[in-house]
Every structure is written in C-alpha cells, then in structure tokens.
Amino acid sequence: MTLRTPRLDETLIARLRADLRAADFTVTGVTELLGPLASGALLREQPLPARRVAGASTAPVATLIRLFTLGDPVDVAEVDRALPTLRARGAVALGLVDEEGDGVVARVDVRPYAADERHWWVASDLAEVATGSPVRNDHVLGIGGASTTLAAWTIRRPVGGALDVGTGCGVQALHLGAHTDSIVATDLSERALAFARFNAALNEVDWDTRAGSMLDPVAGQRFDLIVSNPPFVITPRSGEVPLFEYRDGGASGDAIVADLVRSVGEHLEPGGVAQFLGNWEVPRGSTWTERVGSWLEGAGVDAWVVQREVQDPAEYAETWSRDGGHHPGTADFDAMYAAWLDDFASRDVESIGFGVITLQRPVGDREPFVDLMDERGPVPPAMGESVRVGLEARTWLAEHSDDDVLDRAWTATPDVTEERHTRPGAPDPSVIVARQGGGLGRIITLTTVTAAYLSVADGELTPRQAASAIAGILEGDADETEREVVAFVRDAAKDGLLV
Ligand SMILES: C[S@@+](CC[C@H](N)C(=O)[O-])C[C@H]1O[C@@H](n2cnc3c(N)ncnc32)[C@H](O)[C@@H]1O
C-alpha cells in the first residue's frame, strides 16, 4: 500500500483541528462511544467489536473512528459531515486520505491522545491492525507501549531546554511541552520528522525539528532534559531481518544504546537529566550490571538504571519477528527467528535485558554515582514523580557523608508497611520485610537491628541516636550497629521509603 506523508498546510490543519474538536474526537469521546468492551478489544488489536459499534452510529466521532482508527472506507458525504470545515477534499489535500470509488480511505492514522490533563491528536502511519499487512521499513510509529513507558517514567519538573532524540511522530515532545521552555526534536527519518511537524502544527506547539543520527544534530549543544525512546531493538545485520528504521538504528548488537549512554553527558547542563529506554545484551558468564556498568565507565554521569524485563534469545526473536506484522509458521518469520538466534550466538549472548535508564550530569566535580537495580514487579502507571524523588535522594546521598545521614531525623513514608513471617509455633519471626506501597514497590529484608530502627523512624530520632539505643538494648557492638543502620538508611532513602 502507498504510504502518505501528511502535508504541512497550516490553513487546512486549523480546519482539521476545529473539526476534530467539534466532533469530540477525544480520548473521552472515543471511549464513550465505543464503550469498555470494544475499547478493550481494540487495545488487544481486535477491531471487530469497535467496527460493530461505530458502524451502528451516525455520530461524527463514529465516522472518524471508522475512517482513522479502523481504516475502513467511508462515504464522501459522511466524511464531509464529520469534518465540516475541512471536508473530504481537504483531508485528501492534507494527504490523510485517498479517494476510492464513492468513498475515501485513510492513509494516515489520526487519533486522540491524553495525559496529565492535556489533550492532543497524533498522526502516524496506519498500524497493521488497520492495513492488515506487515509494516514497511520506513514506517512511522504511532503511540506504543514503549512510548507510554518512557513518558510515564519521565521526570516532569519544569526545566528550560529539552531534547527528544528519535522523536518519531513526536509523542515525547508533546509531553515535554507541559513542563519545558523549548524543545528540539530529532530523527534520522525525514518521514518521521514530517509527521512530527504536522503533529506540532495540529496541536499548536512549536518544536525545532532536526534531521540526523542520534546526537549529531545537536553537536555542541546542552539541554536540561533529554528523552529518547531510541531505536534500541537489537537486530541481526545479516540481511534476513529488514532494517525497520522505526525501531532499529542500524548498529550491531546493543551499540546504539551503549553509544547514547557514553555520549549523552556532554549534551547535559550541570544537573541536567537524560532518560531513555534500552536493551542490553548479557554474554554468557557475565551479568547485566557488568554490561551496563562498562558503558558508564568514564561517562561522567550519575546513573540509575532499572532493569524491567529479561528475555532469552528465543523470546527476543519471537517478540521482534512478530512486531513488524509477521506471523509464526510463515517462511519470513522462521528466517528472521533463525537469524536472531545466529546473531546472539555469534556474541555468545545468553539473555537480553530491557530497562529504563536515568542519567544526570553532576553539579560540581564529585564522583558520579551508579545504581543498577533489577526491579521487574508492577509499578504505578505514573512513575515520573517517584523517579524525581529517587534521583534527588540519590543525589543528596552522593553529596553527603555517613555522618550527615546519621544526623538527619528520617521518617518512614506512609506507604511503607512491615511484614513478619513466622514459622507456625515459633516465638520469633524468621523473615521481616519492609514493603513499599508505591514507586518501585521495593521489598527490603530487615534484620533485628534495621527493623528496630524502622519502627522508630518518625522524624524525631536520628539514626545515630536510634543506633546507640538499639545497640544498648540488644547488647550489640555500637559501631557495628551504626554501620548497619546507615547502610539501611541509604538503601531505603534512595527509593523514598525514608524521607
Ligand atoms: C522507537 S521509535 C520512538 C518514537 C517516539 N519517540 C516514541 O517515543 O514513540 C524510534 C525512532 O528513532 C528513529 N531513528 C532510527 N534510527 C535513528 C538514528 N540513527 N538516529 C535518530 N533517530 C533514529 C526512528 O525513525 C523512530 O522515529
């Protein structure tokens, strides 16, 4: 199918915006029309229930769902009613639809999107669910799971200059608009940049869009916040797997993310933060922390990396063979699967990690901190505030001595609970843990000493005072007890269990 790139015609885009607004083609408007059953099915890429609901309604929002979300042919007269100022003719001129027989067919996906009480419309290439065929190599991705994961983990404090590397349709840049003064959005793909410019115009925001690979377009420039959902998918370079530009930066192995980690620091202002997603390879006999840790040596940035998923090479090959719209059992799928297995075997890769990387350029000349943690459990949908708190806590801890930690009266946050597990009939618990209700949902195993400290961490007593009293009651060594308490406070405070 022919791919269309939308035209940047401000007059027609303004009409489109007015019509989408009037039709209530918003997240709420669409969900209300479709109802929970059809909306849920659509999320699972099953369009049939939505087709039945939208087909039974004459509301403009239903016509727009049929046209843009489901990719169905729609009569010109119906499109003219749903887009009364743009009309079908204007949608054709914008490159959003093509005329076919008596109707028009969408060539571009236009959908409402909302977060943090902001509402947008996002144009991208039609997804596989609408076209019924595998996506092309120069496909411009809409909003996917990775996009919303990065958006959810991004720190949303107000800052000056921001950069979105590999902006695609511009989804991260839309989010950045809520809390940054200026935005540079880059992409290697000219088609992606055309979509990004169209979306900026449609949503009445202003971005400096630049073409080029990764950080090349911002040589010599620094930012307060850099975000990237980069083309991190590890792809065999043997030719069996096409270079899907939307997910694959063309490098071998995990080099694209490694390079970004190594080089992003020089583009950060002091105190500036970079956040991105990534995959990393773990060769046999090594660990993910060794792998990611090696990227950070000499990078000059604080690092907090949370590994969220681990796959073996076969699981990875299955995920990404399917992603482009190929199906198990076909020759294409099998050829790609085999190529992935060969590629990972050539580097003796045992597993592949996925996670969220947060880097910060330290203010001043202190040693950067590195915290690589494996936390794969469920997290709340909005993590940005937890990441902000965690980064600020880690920074404070890096800038303060154990004496400072011991002299601060910490408080256990209200979402921290304690669990005691006791063997039936035993007088004392065999396991005591502190469980965090929000954020990363950390579970910290407590000792008698740290459990005793946590029970008095109410903002009155300092760890130094508490450790002295606990050592007295338990008849333990005072220095040893203090060391145990300070290590616990550092671990609990970095993720906000103590504040
Ligand atoms: C996974 S998509 C992310 C799109 C969007 N930012 C999001 O969060 O959904 C990766 C983007 O990187 C772009 N890309 C691929 N190779 C690149 C490179 N070498 N330099 C910069 N961008 C690249 C792709 O065109 C694509 O838009």
Question: Can you describe this structure?
Answer:
By secondary structure, this protein is α/β, with parallel strands linked by helices. Helix content is 39%, strand content 22%. Strands 8-7-6-9-10-12-11-13 form an eight-stranded mixed beta sheet, sandwiched between helices. A hairpin with a 6-residue loop joins strand 15 and strand 16. The longest helix is centred in the N-terminal third of the chain and has 17 residues, at 27-43. The termini are far apart. It binds S-adenosylmethionine. The site of S-adenosylmethionine (SAM) has 23 residues, from helix 8 and helix 9. The site of S-adenosylmethionine has 23 residues, from helix 8 and helix 9.
Quick tags:
499 residues, alpha/beta, 8-stranded mixed β-sheet, 19 helices, 16 strands, binds S-adenosylmethionine
Explain briefly what this protein structure is.
This protein has 19 helices and 16 strands. The protein is α/β, with parallel strands linked by helices and 499 residues long. It starts with 9 loop residues before the first helix and ends in a 5-residue tail after the last helix.
